[in-house]
Amino acid sequence: AMKPRTPQSVGYFPYDGNILGGAMIGVGMALTGACPGTVFVQAGAGLPSGIFVLGGGILGGLLFVSAQPGIAKLREGRSNSKSTAELTIPKSMGVSPWLVLAMWEILCFGMLQLLSGFEGPGKQGLVSPVIGGLLIGTAQACAIALTRHTVGTSGAFEDVGRWLRNVLSGDASKGPITASVVFDCGIMSASALLARFLLPAAAAQASSNLVSPAVAVVGGAVMAFGSRLAGGCTSGHGISGLATFSWASLISVGSMFAAGILTAALR
To answer: CA angle 122-123-128, nearest 5°?
Structure first.
């Protein structure tokens, strides 16, 4: 059994951290064309914009750890931010998780049927998006079986940011190598191998559709900061959190899409 993602608050009301952080992730995704997980794929494939987004993400992690004391102080000063509600959809509604799972699978199948008529840009992938999604789910299952932890990528930004803060303050005794950093390095390594040996044409096509370095850095910083504020990203909430039917993850992912769609429309 995996623990569901918990509500994140900045002190005003329950889940306000999930809403604000999720919205920041969505804005960053719309600006950069990456998420806190796929940025490691892009950087591993050698996309220049992905490398700048990754740099911005590290900057965002540093900004977050610097702002953590202030956020904690704000949270502690407001008692109305605490929530005693159940963390998951099945428990809060008093229904069987198997019923929620069945409804979820029906919803997913319906969305696949609805979206099957849309053609995405480029068709040089090794597998279809549906198979790719199933492979992501398989990676989640492997992570749980091997490490007893669910998949998440944005924690590495906070880990590296904390290490940089310590280095800047004169303490470099503890390095930045954590489980999250190692996991993300694995993503980058696999991406580099695929881009070099199996998908060179796709990598070349992706490199022709880039965002400017300045937008990439700013978007990456906003995205990373938001992911830590929300307590997860498209991986931690979108893959792992939704798999446990966590309310915090549902609210975070909804905020990501709403802000991302609005930002894309305004651009």
So the answer is: 130
Sequence letter at residue 202:
A
Which residue type is seen at 34? A
What are the pLDDT digits (tens) for 185-237?
999 999 999 888 877 776 666 665 678 999 999 999 999 999 999 999 999 99
Bridge partners (DSSP) of residue 88 are 246
84-138 pLDDT, tens digit each: 678 999 999 999 999 999 999 999 999 888 887 776 655 566 788 888 889 999 9
- Taking a C-beta distance cutoff of 8 angstroms, is the pair 32, 39 a contact? yes
Q: Distance between CA atoms of 211 and 50, rounded to whole angstroms?
A: 9
The token pair at 224 is 């990373």
Residue 121 backbone dihedrals phi, psi, to 5 degrees: -70, 130
Measured CA to CA, the distance from residue 215 to residue 221 in angstroms comes to 10
- Per the CB < 8 A criterion, the answer to whether 45 and 191 are in contact is yes
Largest CA distance in the chain: 56
Amino acid at 253: V
For residues 232 and 156, the answer to whether their CB atoms sit within 8 Å is: no
How many Å is the Cα radius of gyration of the chain? 19
**In angstroms, rounded to a whole number, what is the distance separating the alpha carbons of residues 49 and 42?**
8
- Per-residue three-class SS string for 111-125: HHHHHCCCCCCCCCC
Sign of CA dihedral 27, 56, 154, 134: positive
* C-alpha to C-alpha distance for 185 and 197, rounded to whole angstroms: 18
- Global pTM reads 0.89
Report how far residue 233's alpha carbon sits from residue 227's, in angstroms, rounded to the nearest whole number. Answer: 5
